[in-house]
Design brief:
Heat Shock Protein 90; Helix Hairpins; Sig_transdc_His_kin-like_C; 457 residues; 5-stranded antiparallel β-sheet; alpha+beta; 16% strand; Beta-Lactamase; 4-stranded antiparallel β-sheet
């Protein structure tokens, strides 16, 4: 099974690009340096071997011409360097200054050229490490002279050079990666700022802006982003004011209609058909009044118009107040240490959000079964549970949208704004709300609020 390749982030791509670039550059420089140095050192070693071979060959020739000594005696009289083998071929016999056969094997590829009268300098792999072979013909004494010098020092020098260049290449690669990391931080820093401000804006902080910059390449981006946020803020405020103005303008005619219908309902001379129509209009007008009241409240919440100043209270007090406002027994709140957790909130807004959740449980969830408070580190959760059919997973986010209905909700059972008011009110308190499954079969709405700062500290 072929797994899909994970996407590589921009930061990682920049670091890898710098590291690969450093590796390629350092490898190219290392190879160039190594082969240049190797060529120079090999040539120098060949020249040294050739000079030494000429000197020793002249000494062998002169001794054989003047003293008439044996070849072995002549070779023994020469002070040969360590790792060097001297070989003389004369009258079909071969004389060597060393008992090591590798030296004699090394001259094999060069014998024919030397016997033809040429001076030969070459390299042989018959020894370890390789050796430089110099062949010099000595026609005066009817002999040929070979000098096989093992290039041990040259091999050690090249090995050291290889290790040094490999370490330099590795360090350059690491340096390239570190440079790429620093460059990616510098390049992506504006994107990180944009991301941070965008998250704050999406969370409802419409005052968030990118700080001004002196970078001419980023100034256009900063200006366009801030202009976009400002336009978004104006649009939201305009829509909120429009909804609030419309709702406000409707209050007077709705009040007039409510009063008129009340007079008609109290009249005793209406025929049954007319009374049924009046009662139907009164019910619809009551529903319209509730929707108008919810729209006014939602407009104030959208515009961040608070119903008071933030105060620090125990979360259990707000839950108890909400239960009493809905005509419920305070005993529905499960007592515990978490109920005494302090939170800093606008009390009317929080109580109103809890009232909406309790009313939602009664109207759409088959009835409230209980309220629990759970402390979770720096946050405290209020869990409102019901015994209804629950909310399908596909609808658990949509139920907080305006005029959305799901599960057991009926078209005429409410304005569809209650949970929107809860979500907006809780978010204005710096908290969050979501829906999950209850401990039994019902739904559970969770309100999460941050614990008061002085308690966290």
């Amino acid at each position: 099974m072929i797994r899909p390749r994970a996407d590589v982030g921009l930061r990682t791509s920049v670091v890898v690009a710098f590291a690969v670039g450093g590796l390629v550059l350092s490898t190219a420089l290392a190879l160039g340096t190594y082969f240049s140095a190797r060529h120079y050192l090999v040539e120098q070693r060949e020249r040294t071997a050739l000079r030494q071979a000429y000197t020793d060959a002249a000494l062998v020739r002169d001794n054989l011409l003047t003293s008439g000594a044996q070849v072995s005696e002549v070779l023994g009289a020469i002070a040969q360097p360590v790792g060097t083998t001297l070989i003389v071929e004369r009258d079909g016999q071969r004389y060597s200054s060393s008992l090591d056969p590798d030296g004699e094997d090394a001259i094999g590829p060069f014998r024919e050229a030397v016997l033809d009268g040429s001076v030969v300098v070459g390299w042989s792999d018959a020894t370890t490490p390789h050796s430089v072979v110099v062949g010099v013909p000595l026609p005066e004494v009817d002999a040929v002279y070979y000098e096989v010098a093992i290039a041990e020092e040259l091999d050690a020098t090249l090995t050291t050079l290889q290790v040094a260049l490999a370490i330099c290449a590795a360090l350059t690669t690491i340096g390239g990666a570190l440079l790429g990391r620093a460059a990616s931080r510098r390049v992506l820093a504006p994107l990180d700022q944009v991301t941070t401000v965008a998250v704050r804006v999406s969370a409802g902080d419409l005052d968030a802006r990118l700080p001004p910059t002196s970078d001419p390449d980023l100034a256009a981006l900063v200006g366009a982003f801030n202009h976009m946020v400002e336009a978004l803020r104006e649009r939201i405020e305009h829509d909120a004011r429009f909804a609030a103005d419309v709702s406000h303008e409707l209050r007077t005619p709705v009040t007039t209609l409510t009063t008129s219908l009340s007079l008609l309902q109290s009249s005793q001379g209406l025929p049954p058909a007319s009374r049924e129509a009046v009662d139907l209009m009164a019910a619809e007008l009551d529903r319209f009044t509730r929707a108008l009241r919810d729209l006014l409240l939602l407009g104030r919440l959208d515009a961040a118009v608070a119903d008071g100043d933030p105060v620090t209270i125990e979360i259990g007090d707000a839950v108890t107040q909400a239960l009493r406002a809905c005509g419920k027994e305070p005993g529905l709140l499960a007592e515990g240490e978490a109920s005494r957790t302090p939170v800093t909130v606008v009390r009317p807004t929080l109580v109103g959000a809890l009232v909406n959740l309790i009313a939602n449980a009664d109207m759409h969830g088959g009835g409230l079964t209980g309220v629990r408070v759970v402390r979770r580190g720096r946050f405290v959760d209020v869990l409102v549970e019901d015994e209804g059919p629950g909310v399908a997973e596909a609808d658990r986010e949509r139920v907080f949208e305006r005029f959305a209905r799901a599960g057991g909700r009926k078209p005429g059972s409410g304005s569809g704004l209650g949970l929107s008011i809860v979500e907006r009110g809780v978010r204005n308190q710096g908290g969050s709300v979501w829906c999950t499954s209850g401990r039994d079969e019902g739904a559970c709405f969770v309100v999460r609020l941050p614990v008061a700062e002085e308690v966290v500290a």
